[in-house]
Amino acid sequence: MDYKKEIVELREQLNYHNQKYYLDDAPEITDFEYDMLMRRLRELEAQHSDMLSSDSPTQKVGGSKSEAFSPVTHEVPMESLQDVFSYEELQAFDDRVRLATEYTEYVVEKKIDGLSVALFYEKGEFIKGATRGDGLVGEDVTANLNTIKDIPKKLKDPITMVVRGEVYMPKAELLRINAEREIEDKPPFANTRNAAAGSLRQLDPKITKTRGLSIFCFNIQKIENQIFSTHSETLDFLMKQGFPVDRYYKITESISQTYDKIQSIGDAREDYPFDIDGAVVKVNSLSDRKMLGSTSKFPRWAVAFKFPPEIKETKLLDIVINVGRTGVLTPNAVLWPVKLSGTTVSKATLHNYDNILAKDIRIGDTVRVRKAGEIIPEVIEVVKELRTTDAKAFTMPESCPVCGAPVEKDAGEAALRCTGAECPAQQLRNIVHFASRDAMDIEGLGIAVVELLLNEGLIKTAADLYYLDAQKLEILPRMGKKSASNLLENIEKSKQNDLYRLLFGFGIRNIGQKAAKILARRYQSLERLQDATLDELVNIRDIGEITGMSLLNWLNTEQSRHLITRLKDAGVSMESKEEVKDNRFSNLTFVLTGALPNLTRDEATAIIESFGGKTSSSVSKKTSYVLAGDDAGSKLTKATGLGIPVINEEEFRKMIIQEDR
What we know:
Layout: H1 3-23, H2 31-47, E1 71-73, E2 82-84, H3 87-100, E3 106-112, E4 115-122, E5 125-131, E6 137-139, H4 142-145, E7 161-168, H5 171-183, H6 192-200, H7 205-209, E8 214-223, H8 231-241, E9 250-252, H9 255-267, E10 276-283, H10 286-292, E11 302-306, E12 312-323, E13 328-340, E14 343-349, H11 353-359, E15 366-372, E16 376-382, E17 407-409, E18 416-418, H12 427-435, H13 447-455, H14 470-474, H15 480-494, H16 499-505, H17 513-523, H18 526-530, H19 534-538, H20 544-555, H21 558-569, E19 589-593, H22 601-610, E20 614-616, E21 625-628, H23 634-642, E22 646-647, H24 649-656
Parallel strand pairs: 2-11, 19-20, 19-21, 21-22
Antiparallel strand pairs: 1-6, 3-9, 3-10, 4-5, 4-7, 7-8, 10-11, 12-13, 12-15, 13-14, 13-18, 15-16, 17-18
Helix pairs in contact: 1-2, 12-13, 16-17
């Protein structure tokens, strides 16, 4: 390939993956694959200096900042580190350092896999915190950092300084959160780094607080009235002030000692409660650091030794299907046990059937396995040259292996799903969704309580909630008479909900809250909806063929009919309560932004829908009106630019008041 073309393509790829990694928190390649792309670009730029430019990914910190947060300028740049991958590269770093210094000590620390932040303290009080961003300007995430218990809010001494740390998510927290996200039908976090980044950059600090984030601090960026001579002194000082620090850092006097410490960190990485992706080697002397200086991107006094992903070959003995809590059928490989990253692996995910076909994976193949995000083992490829004649192709089942209901593939998705409304594998997710705020709104029936009821055998489906016995509830752990009474009262209250809540609560694919409201308003009862035809449904505005097919398929399964019958027998209302006043807002779309003086967003939405209109979360050319309150943001700006009418609450009320004639 022409080197100029390859350099351009590599820069485009790296800029794209920087966006996915730093801003979207949704990487599409592994860190190792990214590092290899970066390494290749550096090699080409070194060979062809005429192609080197200041906007190359090799010349700038990869991070970026979001417009959703206020900017924070870093007086001391938050630099990234040069990566090395072998003893030889580590030796080359040592040679460069020793050419410029008389005697060198190094400090070796674990490289925590998280999100880098700066913590600002004034006279010992935590006043502000920011992400690294592009190294020069980051995002103000003070409110979210205040929810992390490990960050000291008041220091031992009244020090004014800026401290750098790495916010991370413990492995156990990632497993817990991903289990909850599966129940909520949300995509799981790929690894602890992305989970930490996504959690810290939430617009609502209450969400961040639930994510169990922690931090390790590793550098003093700036400090007043304190003088240190070594990095190790600063780490000890940070510990004294109450900061979490890697207490097991090691001072080394030679590169061989340094490498030994790196290897010991790598050997124990499986035992740590957090993820690491390498070890950091820093010159200990602060005066030597100042003399060595930095490039446009990296300090010359430190490197990050990155551990490559461990890949092993083993035999794929069988493929079995796991039905997840959202009904997704996931093929998993049964493997001949193999040691991988410190643990024995005998199963690995194959993700989905499309992945099996793309990689031509067959039962009996020799395959290569690695740990994705250092947690979940996955099959990455087949060793084709070792394939035997008896290797057997695999096909996905046409019915759920747990409940026997038909499986279906959603449009635009690779996953197959069980359609069973009462499938045991989906019990927890289905019932939690049924009871959720936007569905049947049963207060007090969260994940923990549903798990308790399932484990005690008191319920199997959502319908069983309406047949619960008070005496059996009262004796459950952490329940008691009062809690049991409140729960039963809330369940009873939900029987009178509007039909749209019940429809949404069923958890039918492609039937969101808006579609449920449209259908409830159109058919007024579940009985009439059950008689609907596809031709009718596709002609309803905002329904369409995919939604119509999903609805009819669900309504016509045996498990769905059984669930509906039991709910009806329990006295659950299956009628629409909404009074459609008139259709003055028919074919109109409103976008709500800012805080209205006298109406909540839900109240305004209900009024719009009662007059046949609909709301949208984003402004487009199809928007009819923007209803704006105080602190209206970018939606108002966009509406003005598109020439879309903007109204306030008073003008909105004039539109809905019926004049006497």
